[in-house]
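Justification of computing resources. Each target in the renewal requires a structure prediction run like the one illustrated here; the chain below, 595 residues long, is used simply to show the kind of job we budget for.
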Amino acid sequence: MSQTNLTVAQLNAAAPAEAIALLDGVYEHSPWIAERALAARPFRSLAHLKHALAQVVNTAAADEQIGLIAAHPELAGKAMVSQTLTAESTNEQRKAGLTDCTPEEFAQIQQLNADYNAKFGFPFILAVRGPRGTGLPRREIIETFARRLHHHPAFERGEALRNIHRIAEIRLDDKFAVDLALGNDVWDWQEQLSVHTDPGYAEKGQLTVTYLTDAHRACAAQISALMLATGFDSVHIDAVGNVVGRYEGATPDAKTLLTGSHYDTVRNGGKYDGRLGIFVPIACVRELKKQNRRLPFAFEVVGFAEEEGQRYKATFLGSGALIGHFDSRWLDQKDADGITMREAMQHAGLQEEDIPKIQRDPARYLGFVEVHIEQGPVLTELDLPLGIVTSINGSVRYVGEVIGMASHAGTTPMDRRRDAAAAVAELILYTERRAAQDGDSVGTVGMLEVPSGSINVVPGRCKFSLDLRAPNNTQRDALATDVVAELQAICERRGVRFELEETMRAAAAPSAPAWQQRWETAVDALGIPLFRMPSGAGHDAMKLHEVMPQAMLFVRGINSGISHNPLESSTNDDIQLAVQAFQHLLEGLTTDPAP
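Resulting structure tokens:
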């Protein structure tokens, strides 16, 4: 096996040839990557080294990238059978159990290898040691193989390179004998919490936790128990089901830093959305308790009970209740089974008369910070583990319908049609172009329906949704104005009419500059290049933003950053860095407290 216990200082001090030799085996049969990356010395940290190596690959010529991919062996392929794999590849395939395939599994993988090579012209690459570093189950490897076989070639080349970077990261961890205990624990806590899921989904192996179901209450109990076990001074479940843990400051009158995220999920969702922002600060409290150390401020971690609005239409219920925004009319809403929210709360032992009592006094708080999985592809495509959120996008949503004239598809000439669907198709393409002009605005038509449509009828009606988002309200409103004006112009030109209803408008939540700077200082301390980005998704921080300063830290997701999906995940390495960044933020507050 490769040399272990290497240090960044040794690598920085080594002569070029020696440094290349020290990094031998990190990227399969490709010493040119290490050679070029050495131009970035001195490396500030292992994270800096990983990024420098990845940047060399990402800026390399296409033929060099293909050559790197081709340098990797097939999974359970001829090289494994003939025992001619590199030591690193042998170790990885063994840890994933690929050396113990059943004859059926081996035959399936061989067929997938053949099909994949025929389509893409290079071997299938998967970091088989997985996001935890301990090895993926063979069934998951086969399912991933089959899924990625359907990717577009350009996208799949990128996915292959991202997996190569993860392979390299794990190999570097081995060389540098990296301690990932914090990342491993947070990763494990999320896995352990994911065993709770609502009826009808557990049988399908799907994660769904909606407000105040038995699975939801089991999650609250498990988070509470973990908080107590890790050293919080007090833990309770409040009047709306939020799990609240406090680690008191050095003095009784100290102000409080608030953090947290939600533990409910969308239907058939992922394990990290929201929950990462609960477990990362729990790990920080545990380390403080181990050191028997108090901060000059109190630290309050909240697992918000509801953010997704899945069982009831009450999005941000948990965080909204903390700022006095609980709407009593929600109590009469019924779920799909006819159970009102009031009945669900009574069944959970919650008292509605206590809800006003949980409203926080902003004067007692320093601010709110939140760690969250990115839920998008940006960080993973940049090969950056952490990102600094500059603003949570403002948004506006509409539902609409274009009304034209249904007519015979064969007898109506093209220049005499009043096609409602074609008008909406124009709107979709315009929205795409217009949002792209801003660079960081987004526009989506997510629902599209031709009522009573038929294959041989020109559509007379077309229903659609419209979701427009931008980092600030002015930019959002300009986008909305242009899109609605274009809809009107399209309809006038085509001789159709439209109806449009605004269903939601949410203000942007820009990060407080001082708190954004604290996250930037924390990330910089880890030697990670700073990347600032808006959040396209809404978060609990949006609600707290209304009463106190807030700022967020994003953590890279794997599988192209997919979220609200079972494939949502992050690695122990990235989670480790998130915990360390949070620790740096806490340290910074001890010497430079907020006003």
